[in-house]
Amino acid sequence: MKKLLLIKEIYLEGFRNLGHILLEKYFKAFSWFCFIMFFIVLYAFVYRIATGFAFD
Could you tell me if 21 and 15 are in contact, meaning their C-beta atoms sit under 8 angstroms apart? Predict the structure, then answer.
């Protein structure tokens, strides 16, 4: 739980005093897009390992 709170604090600190509100919204949306894409790739990798895909 402590690690999750630390990650949350790092996320909030990264966007504090960033500047223009449009720029702040853009970076927040981009960071969520990156998190989602990372988990999709992670899911695809685990799925390939679970189904016995040969990584040649």
Answer: no
| pTM score over 0.90 | no
User: For the chain, what are the domain ranges?
Assistant: 2-50
Number of helices (H), then strands (E), belonging to the chain: the values are: 2, 0
Q: Please, what is the end-to-end C-alpha distance for the chain in angstroms?
A: 39
**How crowded is residue 28: how many other Cβ atoms within 10 Å of its Cβ?**
14
**Structure confidence by residue, pLDDT tens digits, 11-25:** 888 877 777 777 778
- CA 34 to CA 20: how far, in whole Å? 21
DSSP E strands in the chain: the ranges are: none
